[in-house]
Amino acid sequence: MSYENLDIYKISFDLFIETHRKSLKFPKHELYELGSQIRRSSDSVNSNIVEGYGRRVYKNDYLRFLRFSHSSCDETLNHIKKIIRIYPDLSSELELEKLVGNYRTLSIKIHNYIEYVQSNWRT
């Protein structure tokens, strides 16, 4: 088995690609402000799943990285909500509300996976 088999990995990878592409359509002055923050936090969601999986032999390490991933997911959501509020026209054009829904779903899935690992993972 590989991290690539995890639903949370697959979803977070696809969302990272989508988020990255959409962030490059932000106004120029936001490319290096909120755009950069969104790109980094969405990448962190995915990267922490991968890094944690590499440490899965150590349950507490794995859980720590999964929590980082969950926190980055919430951070990404918050940044997207800022863009929606600041640029409502851009938000509609880029379908950012849909992205919010997808990150909320991912957040729930990561949370559920953390609970699964806490209860069922071998030590």
TrEMBL record:
It comes from the Bacteria. Gene3D superfamilies: 23S rRNA-intervening sequence. InterPro entries: 23S_rRNA-intervening_sequence, 23S_rRNA_IVS_sf. Coiled coil: none annotated. Pfam families: 23S_rRNA_IVP. Transmembrane segments: none annotated. NCBIfam families: four helix bundle protein. This is Four helix bundle protein. It comes from Chryseobacterium gotjawalense.
